[in-house]
Task: inverse folding
């Protein structure tokens, strides 16, 4: 993930944003270089950490965006044992409708941060013949999630409280696409954009 | 694609960057909203336009990054007829080795801009049983491209002149993965980063 504060004091915003990751250091492997930060671990602390980093940065007045690439089940780079996740293990036995319902419930139960954010993202399901069925099933969930704004070319726009939006992303990532398959998400988050007026 | 200038005058940099797209307006469909710019068209003007936008922005002194998602052959959103491309049509009949050679030649012939940039990117090949073979073939080309910096978790780092780097990306996108398949690239470009010292 990479944080892009649209201010000449971008280093200050990035450094204070990275402080929000401190509580997660025991559960996640976190490595920062000049282009991005790699975070490896289970989906529970991982999505919480990403959300907290962006929430902390978006509470400041400046326009800030974040880009994140999420990956699970990459055959070229097997998941670390720490990435283990119950939702994925159970997904094998659940119908698309059951998974949509569980995902919608989880978004309803998400914590409220008071920070309004915009997100656009794409979900990719690889190496499977039936990837469009899972993607359409995921889009149906998104439309009923309460955070859906609109469909765009090649991606979906979400808008809402950072808590609900990141929970929507976690559910989309975990409950759709084969449990053992290679699934990725490409997402951009934005806050305090002057274009929104 | 989205341009992120790390300066309080970010609107000025974005606006002047978008001017670099002017010469391409007759060949490409270009639509900008509050989060990103959609560009639809053939790979020749499309990669040239992305390169020129980033080159123009990187010639200024400020740290600037750009995120781009590239997609071809999406079954849910068929390519526009304007996206037609000879390299893709011929790829069906060419072996992996032949495609690697053509890709390497194209990078050697790329124009030189004098602007040094960093890129990290991932190539995704969807809905195909054999996607890792194409990805490993692509990585082999990248390593001999002259712009390869290193492999990272889930992505590849390139460094070099903007001309050679964007040609490397175009070749990776067009010559690897099935010609009729759904292939995407998730890429981040960076210039003038203070982290590089």
Result:
């Amino acid at each position: 993930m990479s944080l892009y504060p649209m201010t000449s004091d971008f280093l200050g915003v990035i450094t204070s944003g990275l402080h929000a990751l401190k509580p997660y250091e025991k559960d996640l492997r976190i490595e920062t270089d000049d282009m991005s930060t790699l975070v490896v671990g289970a989906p529970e602390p991982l999505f919480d950490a990403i959300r907290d980093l962006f929430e902390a940065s978006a509470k400041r007045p400046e326009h800030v965006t974040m880009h994140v690439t999420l990956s699970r089940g990459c055959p070229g780079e097997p998941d670390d044992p720490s990435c283990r996740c119950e939702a994925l293990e159970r997904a094998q036995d659940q119908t698309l409708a059951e998974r949509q319902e569980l995902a919608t419930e989880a978004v309803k139960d998400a914590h409220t941060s008071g920070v309004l954010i915009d997100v656009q993202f794409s979900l990719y399901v690889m190496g499977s013949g039936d990837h469009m069925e899972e993607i359409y099933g995921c889009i149906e969930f998104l439309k009923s999630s309460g955070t859906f704004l609109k469909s765009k070319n090649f991606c979906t726009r979400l808008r809402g409280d950072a808590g609900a939006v990141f929970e929507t992303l976690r559910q989309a990532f975990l409950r759709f696409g084969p449990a053992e398959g290679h699934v990725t998400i490409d997402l951009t988050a934005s806050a305090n954009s002057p274009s929104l007026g």
In short: The first strand of chain A starts at residue 2 and ends at 5. Residues 43-58 of chain A form the longest helix (16 residues). Chain A has one domain: 2-192.
